[in-house]
Design brief:
The chain is α/β, with parallel strands linked by helices. Helix content is 39%, strand content 21%.
Amino acid sequence: MQILVTGATGYVGGRLVPRLLRRGHDVRVFVRDPARVSNRPWGDQVEVFRGDMSDPASVRAALEGMDAAFYLVHAMGHSEDFAATDRQWAHTFVAAATECPTLRKTVYLGGLLPEVDEARSRHLSSRAEVGEILRAGTPTLEFRAGPVIGSGSASFEMVRYLTERLPAMIAPRWIRNRVQPVGVRSVLVYLCEGVEREGATGIVEIGADRLSFRDMMLQYAEVRGLKRLIVPVPILAPSLAGRWVGLVTPITKAVAIPLVEGIVHPVLADTTRAQELFPDNEPMTYREAVRLALQRVDEGQVMTRWSGALGSAPAYRFEDREGMAQEIRTRWVKAAPEQVYRSFASLGGRRGWRVWGPLWRLRGFVDQLVGGPGLRRGRRHPVDLEQGEAVDFWRVEEARAPELLRLRAEMKVPGRAWLQWEAIPEDRGTRLIQTASFVPFGVPGALYWYGAYPAHRFIFDDLVDAVVDDAEAGIPGLHEVA
């Protein structure tokens, strides 16, 4: 089949594409930035189509000649009124689909809904509305899933960090409400079989064990061999709980609050139709999904992460022009470019930033307090980087091994900031160039940059020296974070 995948750089889409290829399908991916798939293992096996869901012409062109399409985009995090954007995108897609004579089916991944309409969060209501628009306008198979559990998923990371970091906790009593998590591997099987099954349309609810969120944390603790005490109390509003999750875990507030709102009321699946249509797909248990996710994390083999989708900020490009302040440091390194690249490409995450650790952590904490991501997001892999993914409070804008790495700041600052390294062969070694760049927004931006300059002078001097030391020494201790 000729299949279009929207959302191919997201958590589910990035894992779905290689499975479709292994099943013999021809895949076209619809992305805003083609560079973000160029470094994926499957990047040279797909047709890459550049477009935007808000552009009807590009959506029509992307669907041309396709037999089926996956609708895996969601506007949460892209705009403040994400429901309106979701609605616009869905109508744009349907209009384009009706003009595509070859398109036989659209497959959409939505969310399970509470039985009472009034209990729906904004997030779940928007997901449901998108499904209604798609089903009304084009033959659509809509899978509805609860919390998706897999290495790097937002739900798994929330459970993981709350359980790992808090030996005892008081929690709102609604954590005793039952939900129905499902392993990401099971979701991917449903998606693949769903697009291939002729005539399968409508709503299919999927899920595995019926557990309370409290049970999910306690089962995680058992898998990890941890003892945890969780005491439910009749307080803590969902929005407050979401902000607490945003402080304790790597999940940003913008994502944590909708996740929490999704478990305030019981959300269970009626899997009867899933069992009838896909009798051979027996979803893995929650415990099995947790064990597998932890194995992938320990092995450093996390294929995609919740933070990998393009953020809400425009993808600004690095430009050396008037109005940009830069700090440029250069060193000659007695090591090959590959070693130098590995040295700076492995910064962040569990390995940290090598120098002035307390200041980096303080900067991350302050960023969290003002609504930024802080250092909580970590990184997907201890060394490998893909364009567009998150590294702490940075976003990889360009990664071209072994020559160049450029990170764009996503922390809250009054301007636009980048940190870049280049590794250039020179005299049987490598010329390392480290550049910190900042485009200030007015007077506040200028005051911020020059006010931080004294600290930057020491931090960035020591950072470039640490990159040199690690490259020449072979990055001591890197195996400990792999």
